[in-house]
Design a protein that fits this description.
globular; 19 strands; 28% helix; alpha/beta; 16 helices; 8-stranded mixed beta sheet; single chain
């Protein structure tokens, strides 16, 4: 949604409205990548639209066949119909399942491996929907007891217990197992979470959330300033706290994001922010957490890779300009080191904001995030990091598994993503991006998972789920969007897990947080509760009311209706 102004009012509840109005609903992808996992999109119909699992499957099988007039041949498994079949290793609406074999008219067109084995983690039915949790009132100086839920602490077995939250400090003051005494005053607000699940809030480690509103409208894009060397620019300054993307993303369990500038060689510094607050200063956790460098990728035959402000093609002029900018970058860092040495020597200098902003990075106090996807570019970024003498993090890193040994040797972490993307090289296996996280995990490389553009930051849990479907252990999938980004970004002492003393960024769900069919019922950020409401839920309520009026003949202008 929101990639253009005409789609800004798009909502994930549209299929519900159409079904309730009596229309036959099917899903389409409109995207070369999205069409590869339509089963996950169908699972969202259970979450957003209250479809039964059968209705959700029909939206990608029988209903499109009917709309194309081909239901006599396609859409169901029946004697006499075309043998068009998809064999999954689990329930196709389970986000941990994957397609193992595809037949078209009885002929095998795709087979992932010689073994067709079911996966235990993928067999569960979609999460059963439940009524909304009653709104939790905000008590600025109050105490909340989230009682009786299943508490998920990354890296540890889940258990039933209670979490005590102090809104005044914004912290978790106690995590108690069932049967243990809960230390809370009699005035505490008790929230019955029996049968529900408590998770740490997810952390998006690489987005432009809050900086871009409508993708095709340049006037709403503050993610890039245009200069090649802008280390003094901080993303938080351009964040729009009233962005519609923020509550939409928050409503799916993402409570914090590293938003970053883009569009040039060194566009500025990323800011870590909570997804709640009246003004950017209230949202900021660290307004200058990382310096971002978009490594200038060599041209690729298919044109993939991060968008950068460099000339394409293999011309000598393009290569010259690329090297010229890299040399200017190296000189800027060298100048910053001389500036630092002069300051330390006690000599007076005219303050230089650009050089001042580089000091924490040339000293190795803060990380430098290099955006690079392809193997050659990642190796080039590591070489550049050595020359600049900085502490690197690789972001993107879809081909990082190809240099896993080097990343492990250097202990360079990877902010991987988006997982749901096409391979970067011609001839690459179709599932290379899906399996990248598992390969990094098996190689012992530290990593976390990020999403794509601002409008899809809400889909962060499903990026992790796709990695699980292709080999990443489920507990590592949860870690990759909670504890691991907190560790890589240097804030694990405050965020990333449900522990006493940490900030109370929490998510209450009715099931596994990474499953596309799971509902987020409530969110806490810095100890304050937020309902999972946003522009999209408001539009749904508005048009559901209108639909009900029409169906009950109470529409204005209808016989017997209101004036």
């Amino acid at each position: 949604w929101a990639y253009k102004i005409e789609a800004f009012d798009a909502i994930p509840y549209g299929a519900r409205l159409l079904r309730d109005a009596g229309a036959s609903v099917c899903l389409k992808s409109d995207d070369n990548e999205l069409m590869r996992h339509m089963n996950q999109e169908a699972a969202k119909l259970v979450k957003y639209c209250e479809f039964t699992p059968e209705e959700a499957l029909h939206a990608i099988t029988l209903n499109p066949a009917k709309q194309l007039g081909l239901d006599a041949r396609l859409g169901t498994i029946e004697v006499g119909k075309d043998a068009d079949l998809a064999i999954f290793n689990g329930n196709p609406l389970n986000s941990y399942s994957r397609c193992e074999m595809t037949l078209v008219e009885g002929e095998v067109y795709f087979q992932r491996s010689d073994k067709l084995e079911p996966q235990e983690i993928a067999k569960a039915e979609p999460t059963k929907q439940r009524a909304k949790l009653p709104a939790i009132p905000d008590m600025p100086k109050g105490i909340y007891v989230l009682k009786g839920g299943t508490i998920h602490q990354p890296g540890k077995p889940a258990f039933v217990g209670s979490v005590v939250v102090d809104a005044a400090s914004g912290k978790i003051t106690q995590v108690a197992r069932a049967g243990e005494k809960v230390d809370a005053p009699a005035t505490a607000r008790v929230i019955d979470c029996t049968g529900l699940f408590l998770y740490p809030g997810m952390i998006e480690p690489g987005t432009v959330l809050g900086l871009v509103e409508v993708g095709s409208a340049r006037e709403t894009n503050d993610s890039s300033d245009g200069g090649d060397f802008q280390p003094d620019l901080r993303a938080i300054v351009g964040v729009n706290p009233d962005s519609e993307f923020i509550p939409v993303t928050r409503s799916n369990g993402v409570t914090m994001a590293l938003t970053r500038p883009t569009g040039s060689l060194m566009p500025g510094q990323g800011s870590l922010m909570n997804l709640a607050g009246w003004v950017p200063a209230e949202m900021a956790v660290n307004d200058a957490l990382s310096l971002h460098i978009e490594y200038p990728s060599e041209p690729t035959p298919r044109g993939f890779g991060p968008a950068t402000a460099f000339d394409g093609g293999n011309s000598a002029l393009a290569k010259f300009r690329r090297e010229e900018k890299l040399n200017k970058l190296k000189e800027l860092f060298a100048t910053a080191r001389r500036y630092d040495a002069t300051q330390k020597a006690g000599l007076k200098l005219v303050p230089n904001p650009r050089l001042e902003s580089l000091l924490p990075y040339v000293r190795g106090e803060k990380p430098v995030v290099f955006t690079a996807d392809r193997k050659a570019d990642i190796l080039g970024a590591l070489k550049l990091a050595d020359e600049l003498k900085v502490k690197p993090i690789i972001s993107g890193g879809i081909e990082a598994w190809k240099v896993a040994d080097e990343l492990k040797r250097r202990d360079v972490p990877v902010i991987l993503g988006p997982v749901m993307s096409l391979p970067r090289e011609i001839g690459e296996k179709y599932d290379a991006p899906f399996a990248a996280a598992a390969r990094l995990h098996n190689a012992g490389v530290r990593f976390c998972i990020r999403s794509k553009e601002a409008s899809n930051t809400r889909n962060l849990p499903y990026e992790a789920a796709m990695a699980v479907a292709y080999g990443l252990p489920p507990e590592e999938g949860l870690n990759a969007v909670t504890l691991y980004p907190a560790q890589i970004l240097g804030v694990a002492d405050q965020f990333g897990s449900v522990e006493t003393g940490k900030r109370a960024n929490l998510v209450i769900t009715n099931g596994d947080m990474l499953q596309a069919s799971t509902q987020v019922l409530s969110i806490f950020i810095d100890g304050h509760p937020y309902e999972p409401t946003n522009k999209q839920t408001r539009l749904f309520d508005k048009y559901l009311k209108r639909l009900n009026e029409v169906r009950s003949s109470e529409s204005p202008g209808q016989p017997g209706g209101r004036p």
